Structures are given as C-alpha cells and as structure tokens.
Amino acid sequence: MSGHRRAYQLGVVACHACTLVCEDTGGSGAHARCPRCGAALHRRRPDSIARAWALLLAAVICYIPANVLPVMHTSMLGSASDSTIMSGVIQFWHHGAYGIALVIFIASIFVPCTKFLVLSLLLATSQRRSGWARRERARLYRLVELIGYWSMLDVLVVAMVAALVKFQALSDVEPRVGILFFGMVVILTMLSAMHFDPRLIWDGDKE
C-alpha cells in the first residue's frame, strides 16, 4: 500500500453512524464522540467479527427448520396440505406458475445460501488478516448489502399468494411456522452483514 496513508496515520477516524471524518483525539477513538451525531467513534467496530459470526451461525441454525417445517397450509375443495419451501417451488412449477416458483427459489434457496457462503468467506479471511483478493472481497460485501434488501421476497410472495387464494370461496391458504424461521434467517443475516466492519478486509499483514 505504498503511496497511500491510512486513517490512523493521518490521525482521523470515520463515524459509523453519519460517516463524518473526525479528528482522532482519543488514541484508539474509543472514548471520542462524533461532533455531528454524538455517536462513539471507533477505528473498527468493537468485536465486529465475533458478533457477525454469532449472528451468522444463528441464521444457519434457523435455516434448517425454515426448510424442514411447512411455510404454507393450502386447503382446496376439501383437501388440505402443508408445503415446505422446496415443495412449494415444485408445486408452483408443476402448475405453470414459473415466475412465482423462480422468485421463491431465488429468494429462499439461492440468496440465503449465497449469503452464508460469502459472509463466511469474508469473516474467515478477515479473521486471518488475509491479504488475498481484497478488492474482490470488498465487492462481495457490497453485493451482500445489496441483496439483503430483497431477502424478504419469499415472505412477500407467500403473503400475496395467500391474499389471492382468499378471493376464491373454495380455497384457503394460511402461513405456517416455517415462514417465521425464514424471516429470522433474513433478519439475522442482515444483522451479521451490518456488524461486520468491511474495513477489516484491508487490515492484512501485508500493508
């Protein structure tokens, strides 16, 4: 990193809340306050990796019942059935609702698994202070932040399907406990990404 000076070398620290660059008057910045918003200033978020790992592991644990337990109960013409995420995708696909099936698959299977893998990679490499592919890892973090805003698509689709079926007198759809666990997965992965300090990517041994 020759030719580039880091924030601690310049004696400044960025506020995590409002991003104002402030003078680092407290050494580590642990006791300083942002003059604009009053938030505590830190060169790096305290216990960032430990908190992000804990939230990520909790999300992975919740993802198991989210896929095993039913997310939707369908009753039509006297016959009732419970559907998990994958069985729901298969049913929608077989009934020709390819768009809904694809949205549920991407939002419920592809996106969460991708976030698990990416966050694990970011946390493991940052914990080891690896200098490998820093720019690419920074892009991956921005990607996780971007797709996090669309992670509730599956919950929204189930709600929309339930509302549409309610219009039919002989049909009924009700959400089941699996959708609650999936909502927890979404929230926990978003919190994990929020607690991870991406500046740790650039704190490798090779400066």
UniProtKB/TrEMBL annotation:
Q: Does the keyword Phosphoprotein apply?
A: no
**UniProt keyword list:** Cell inner membrane, Cell membrane, Membrane, Transmembrane, Transmembrane helix
One of the record's GO cellular component terms: plasma membrane
Q: Where in the cell is it found?
A: Cell inner membrane
Residue stretches spanning the membrane: 52-72, 92-125, 146-165, 177-196
The protein's name is: Paraquat-inducible protein A
Q: Which organism is it from?
A: Rugamonas apoptosis
